[in-house]
Amino acid sequence: MKKNILTLLDLTAEDFEAFFERAIELKKRFKNGIRDKSLAGKTLGLIFDKPSIRTRVSFEAAMAQLGGTPIFIGAEAPRMARNEPVRDIARVLSNYLDGLAIRTYSQDLLDEFAEFTSIPVINALTDLYHPCQVISDIMTVIEHKGRYKDINIVWVGDGNNVSHSWINAAAVLGLNLNLACPEGYSPDRQILENALGKGVGKIVVTSDPVEAVKDADVIYTDTWASMGQERELSSRRHVFEPFQINKALLKNAPDDVIVMHCLPAHRGNEISEEVLEGPRSVVWDQSENKLHMHKAILDILLNPKT
Prior knowledge:
single chain, Rossmann fold, 13 helices, globular
């Protein structure tokens, strides 16, 4: 049976552990000059309705480094150039490819592809979720903190798609997650309620970033205006200014806190230049780990054991 990653709720704690273990192993082997070819003869389609240099290149490089072939489709499929139904395209692509990574606006579009394909479908980002980003981010937490359990993760900023995937991860893995968001910009209520309903982990939403970071092991931020919201940035700026990750805010956090950002970073908005380039930042390790985690995800999903 195929395994999709549409949201992190599709995964079990055992799935997460398998991804972490494989990604760390593949990264170590790559650093030691070992070039694995476990995806030789495999093909991955990349349907990108939303552009991204990091997500595209990391998926393409991951596939190529494991001996497979990435095929960039762009936005042609979801736009249905000749009004062809999604279900028809999905079934056709299932005959050509071993997997699909889709980066688009609508979660419903992604879900429809998944319903009608016989190959794994991977969410490379939608307006609601960014699951692969968060899986790779937890790998970075493990590398720098030695574990993810009993770690205090603090999200500071907009309650966006990345924050939603952190909420889902917390619900599966039992994370301690504190989300500090301006009033009116909290995560989606239904996503939050679904996660809280699982009774696993500790998820708290607050509007006080100073209080939120006091016991933080990890401080995470993202852009104040996600893709498609750029026109709102000027109006959002005054609301989000108290939520900037800067030297003043870090004075309220433990000395060994690490700072994460999924990029692209807007220096002087959600994070200061001083912090982004400072000793607490692990952003560049975080960006590298997208490659190794994408390799692990593809290796496991495209080479199922059963």
